[in-house]
Amino acid sequence: MIEIRDLTFTYPNQPAPLFDAFDWRVARGEFWSVIGASGCGKSTLLHLIVGVRAASAGTITVNGESVPRKQNRGKTGLVLQDYGLLPWATVRENVKLGLRIREFYGQDDRRESSAVSGQRSAVEFWLERFGLAALRDKYPAQISGGQRQRVAIARTLVLEPDVLLMDEPFSALDAPTREDLEQLTLDLQNETGMTTIFVTHNIEEAVFLGRKILVLDAPPHRSPLRVVENAGAGRAAYRDEAAFAEKARMLREMLKRDA
């Protein structure tokens, strides 16, 4: 569960806060989309939850743990749009990177063990699960954008997070690749039960993925929040249903009013 209470955050040299007395609760295992105009604070919200930015006031707890100032919570995974892969490292080395960092800092003694993969290492399990096993010795420049994003997601999941934050991870991909990775994200969430927050500027993507959708308007963001219930999300056939088109139309009208 993610619980944000009375959160205030202001960027330096900005006259008004981005978040002001902001309250938000995400129940364990929920899948939320977050949508809003560029620059409205979607990414900042994720950065506050993961702990790379510090609030001016208020509290954030993730599964009962307070998010400390300037310190990441080890069980919260963050997937970014730009992949963040090391160009000089192979696919396998990039997937293993998080484990190596955790081992270096002595944060965990599990190394590459994984309850999911049994006798196989977590790295090999996720390489196979994501169809990357044949590419394990290639470098990021030698694989496609969709494959690079699979590597970035695998690198996060190898750490066995209980919360997954995704910041516009598919926005630079072509439509077929994006839709394939959207379905993969849903499959993973169904398999693992991870609490997932997916930031996007794409209305159809927000509707297809998020069983609840947080709509951010112009800052400062205050409670009460605008939340759209979206019970049909997560089904492959949802895109072809009238309810999908109606939900997308509703979101589009909400965002137009904010423009």
3D architecture notes:
This protein is an alpha/beta fold. The chain has 2 domains: 171 residues, P-loop containing nucleotide triphosphate hydrolases (Rossmann fold), CATH 3.40.50.300; 79 residues, no CATH class. The protein has 7 helices and 10 strands. A 6-stranded mixed sheet has the order 6-7-8-3-9-10, sandwiched between helices. The chain has a 4-stranded antiparallel sheet with strand order 2-1-4-5, with no helix packed on it. Helix 5 links the parallel strand 7 and strand 8. The longest helix is centred in the C-terminal third of the chain and has 18 residues. It is globular and about 50 Å long.
Condensed summary:
The chain has 259 residues and is of the alpha/beta class.
Task: State the distance separating the first and last CA atoms.
Answer: 32 Å
Strand order in the largest sheet:
6-7-8-3-9-10
How many extended strands? 10
- In helices, the fraction of residues equals 25-40%
Question: By helix and strand content, what is the structural category?
Answer: alpha/beta
Q: Main sheet, how many strands, which sense, barrel?
A: 6 strands, mixed
Order of helices and strands: EEEHEEEHHHEHEHEEH
What is the overall silhouette? Answer: globular
Low-confidence stretches are 109-119
Count of DSSP helices? 7
Output mean pLDDT: 88
CATH-derived architecture of the largest domain: 3-Layer(aba) Sandwich
CATH level 1 class label of the largest domain: Alpha Beta
Radius of gyration: 18 Å
CATH fold descriptor of the largest domain:
Rossmann fold
Number of structural units classed as domains: 2
Strand content: 15-25%
Q: So, the CATH homologous superfamily of the largest domain?
A: P-loop containing nucleotide triphosphate hydrolases
